[in-house]
Amino acid sequence: MKLKGISLYRKRSMLGFFFIGPWLIGFLFLYLTPLIQSVKFSFTKLEIQPEGYSLLSVGWENFRNAVFVDANFNRILTSSVWEMILSVPMILFFSLFSATLLNQKFRGRTLTRAIFFLPVILASNAIEAAEKSGLINLIGSASYLEEMQGATSSYNVTSIVYTLLDIGIPLTFADYIVTAILSIYSIITSSGVQILIFLAALQSVPNTMYEVAKMEGATAYESFWKITFPMISPLILTNIIYTVIDSFSGSPITTLIYSTAFTSQNFGLSAAMSWIYTIVVAGFLAIIGVVLAKRIHYN
């Protein structure tokens, strides 16, 4: 294939399509049909028949039932959104902090990076499924660790709160810090992919920029905010989007949607809940994209 007459912009566009090709193929062959089917279910009532199922059009009734009739949907959706708002900054801060440390040169750096990523693998659905099916047998579990953490942290939490208040930190911010400490296991297990993305971003920053800054007398603090942060800002947005979607994927709202479909056999209501939830997530991502668009440096 001759590429001589193609402009650089077009070459980059073709490269972009090449990278999103696997996702596009998977979407067309695996996700597009269920997506259209879920839209159809959300406006219908599904009844199981001996020969299959039948659909009876009900208009917007499933959406009205989800928002105004169902006793749990609004409460769980609001709770999930609030938890997401609290957890995303914690995960991003921890990921960037860990990636900055792991980007330093020290002996055993490769092993340390593997150790940081290990909780992500152990907490993955693949390991959980393998353990439940008896293929592997791990000693201990995340739930047990969280119970132990909750049982032994009461004294430490009180001490930390008083310490933070004594040094002048507002009570609201102190509560946020304590929440982050109590959620440290969840933060670590949710940060593996974000650490890898930040690590790749940090390694892409040219060392010559730091050398010039050092010659000009810039401090490490100034180098971080004037060089590192702007250079990795596109991947900060990537990590925010990934973390928002990841936080919703394992939230109680997905459990409610699943149980509504496969326990209560109300597939129409479940599909309506799914689309409301999708619109909420898309709305958050749109707001984040608009707010951060002017602060992202792509050059």
Commentary on this structure:
The longest helix is centred in the N-terminal third of the chain and has 35 residues, at 8-42. The radius of gyration is 24 Å and the shape is globular. The protein has 299 residues and is mainly alpha-helical. The chain is built from 14 helices and two strands; from the N terminus they run αββααααααααααααα. It starts with 7 loop residues before the first helix and ends in a 6-residue tail after the last helix. The protein is 76% helix and 4% strand. A hairpin with a 2-residue loop joins strand 1 (44-49) and strand 2 (52-57).
- The counted number of beta strands is 2
Strand content range: under 5%
* Count of DSSP H/I helices: 14
Percent of residues in helices comes to over 70%
Family: Belongs to the binding-protein-dependent transport system permease family.
Main location: membrane
Transmembrane segments: 12-32, 84-103, 110-127, 176-202, 223-245, 274-293
Keywords: Cell membrane, Membrane, Transmembrane, Transmembrane helix, Transport
Which descriptors would you attach to this protein?
299 residues, mainly alpha, 4% strand
Q: What topology does this entry show?
A:
Elements: H1 8-42, E1 44-49, E2 52-57, H2 61-69, H3 73-102, H4 109-122, H5 125-132, H6 142-152, H7 154-166, H8 171-182, H9 184-189, H10 192-203, H11 207-215, H12 220-249, H13 252-262, H14 267-293
Antiparallel strand pairs: 1-2
Helix pairs in contact: 1-14, 2-14, 3-10, 3-12, 7-8, 10-12, 12-14, 13-14
Keywords: Cell membrane, Membrane, Transmembrane, Transmembrane helix, Transport
Subcellular location: Cell membrane
Family: Belongs to the binding-protein-dependent transport system permease family.
